[in-house]
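Work package 3, deliverable 3.1, input record:
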Amino acid sequence: MTSQSPKEELVEHLPALRAFARSLARDHTAADDLVQDTGVKAWSNFDKFKEGTNLKAWLFTILRNTFYSTIRKGKWETEDPDGVMAGQMSVKPAHDGVMALAEFKDAFHILPEDQREALILVGASGFSYEEAALMCDCAVGTIKSRVNRARAKLTELLNIEDGESIAEEDAATLAALSNNPA
Amino acid sequence: MADKEEDKDSEHAPVQDQIQENLRALYDETLSEALPDKLLDLLKQLESQDIQK
């Protein structure tokens, strides 16, 4: 097993950092700026990183702290305060029940940032609820609640109803069968 | 406690599966992109600063 230093390992985490940054920042340029700032901060603080602990989680924490401190400085607008995007969302999923990724992205970015980050950390980045709670400096229950609220909101925004696609398919199948007796 | 959350999710499995698939696709889309030169240049710059120290 090769043992890499955290500095050598940093480059391997850059794609994941970019994916996380894009879930927080609204545009790709701002996301890459965020990753760049994270890289610089991490580099100058590697002496504080505890070897043997989770480097990815450490880097993600730096990125989210950088993001929130940038927002506090009023540098970025990240929310949808006037509900402009939300008002444009009335998209039904495609007829086969599979929602288009572009529609999903629009809906995802309407969510508040704390819900977006919880969803990405737990649902896509592979962190446990416990790890996400540590990174977000909150209780595990808070992360679970944010994830549940985010999923419920996405369901609402994307007009998905439970069993919708399945029910439609079943109805079509039943109709076809009744018109075509064996 | 985690089981309860999972039970809750499983009641809405088809919808949650769609959301999960899209979330993963959204994330993986960026993972599969090549890193921009700007970031690679930054790393080189940081490494060279270390060497000079």
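Residues 2-52 of chain B form one domain.
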